[in-house]
Design brief:
single chain, about 220 residues, alpha+beta, four-stranded antiparallel sheet, four-stranded mixed sheet, 6 helices, 10 strands
């Protein structure tokens, strides 16, 4: 996990090297920091949808949960920290099988289909209004792979000499590892209007790590 104060000090150090002044308030920093990690998150998820290859960044948020859909309706709620589905599996005669996603538009057609009905051997699901809906309704136990919602980073602070000072007690760190810092920082810096090339950012990162006892 990356400490939110380390991240803040790093992006401010880069910002001060390439432009004068630093007018970002703590509330603005928290907002931009979360937006930055979410942009990286969604970019990597879209890549996964195209290639089925998950990134190291996404893997920080990947979880598995057992669902027990209602045998009457086939419905099961999303996990509380749900963000996106990664994969759905069910068991038939002790064999794990993938559950195919069906669009909401085609869901009614699948239920009425006589040629290709959903069965426990060929189960299907759709996502609707905060819940999963499964066919065959008596699908049994379902294994859900999903990406949890990234925790919002918070740089907590107290006032010292009329200036905000870092307060670890009220702060919330990032959940991703240090190897993703440059990527998230690059997005953050672009959001606040600080344009910097990747090579320059890597150089600043190395200098910052040395100056801070290789903290990155």
């Amino acid at each position: 996990m990356v400490n939110v104060n380390v991240f803040k000090n790093f992006v401010e150090a880069v910002q001060n090297k390439v432009q004068s002044g630093n007018s970002i308030t703590p509330l603005q920093f928290n907002s931009f920091a979360h937006q930055s990690q979410m942009l990286v998150f969604e970019k990597d998820r879209k890549t996964f949808l195209k290639t089925q290859e998950s990134s190291d960044f996404l893997d920080n948020f990947l979880k598995t949960k057992t669902l027990n859909p209602s045998s009457l309706t086939g419905f099961a709620p999303y996990p509380d920290d749900f963000q996106h589905t990664a994969g759905v599996r069910a068991y038939y005669n002790g064999i794990e099988r993938p559950v195919d996603l069906v669009t909401n538009k085609a869901w009614g057609e699948i239920q009425a289909s006589e040629l290709q009905p959903a069965t426990r051997y060929f189960p299907k699901y759709t996502e609707f209004a905060g819940e999963y809906r499964f066919l065959h309704r008596n699908i049994g136990i379902v294994m859900l792979d999903y990406w949890k919602e990234p925790v919002k980073p918070v740089w907590g602070w107290t006032s010292v000499n009329n200036a905000p000072a870092y307060n670890p007690v009220t702060s919330t760190d990032f959940e991703w590892e240090a190897f993703s810092l440059n990527e998230v920082a690059s997005v953050y810096l672009s959001l606040i209007g600080c344009n910097i090339k990747d090579k320059e950012l890597e150089q600043f990162s190395g200098q910052f790590a040395q100056q801070n006892n290789n903290i990155l």
